[in-house]
Amino acid sequence: MSEALSFSVEKRTGLGKGHARRLRRQDDKVPGVVYGGDQPTIYFSIDYRHVAKAIQAEAFYSQVLELVIGRKKERVVLRELQRNPASDKVLHIDFLRIREDRAINISVPIHYLNEDKCHGVRLQSGVISKNLTEIEVSCLPKHLPEFIPIDLEHVELGTTIHLTDLELPEGVSIVSLTHGDMHDVLVVSVHLPRGGAVEEEEEEAEEEEDIVEEDEPTPDEDES
Questions:
Q1: In 3D, which of 90, 102, 99, 88 has the Cα closest to residue 60?
Q2: Which of 41, 72, 97 is the last residue of a domain?
């Protein structure tokens, strides 16, 4: 686990939609809340420019973060990010306070490695189809991985990789697999391009026809 991203925020006492609207319009701040961990809820605001920068980082969505509120520091994970549906601007942030002795459920990104070196693509004319870009995992905060790597270098044409095929760090489990084998979904596959299978079948059919024609007796052979 990498060092936590840190953000300084200001505690706020005003609540309600009117107060939140003033924060956004007049002060260019984003209201937010921290809850959980058997501690009181904290309401805060943060400069929008800090939020705009933070949301560009992959770790903001999937790693433990540190909020500095006055002299107090809170270790949290992002729980919800509310956006304006028209402009996509962030309107509100919810953070969940974590405890080091309690497992958390959080989605972490998948990093596909060596796509350009994939055996099934370079040597067998296949293509890579990615079904997932992130996976929800469960683990203690100290075991939280930055990402789940999948190395595609030696993957052959026709290979399918499911959740149960992934190698996970110690102490990390995939949440959906706790609900049964039916949730062992496809993650990535290497297969022929669309239409490739049809062309291959046509070629095989033509080869079979050539073999049949070669085996058919000539008229002279029939008369003899």
A1: 90
A2: 97
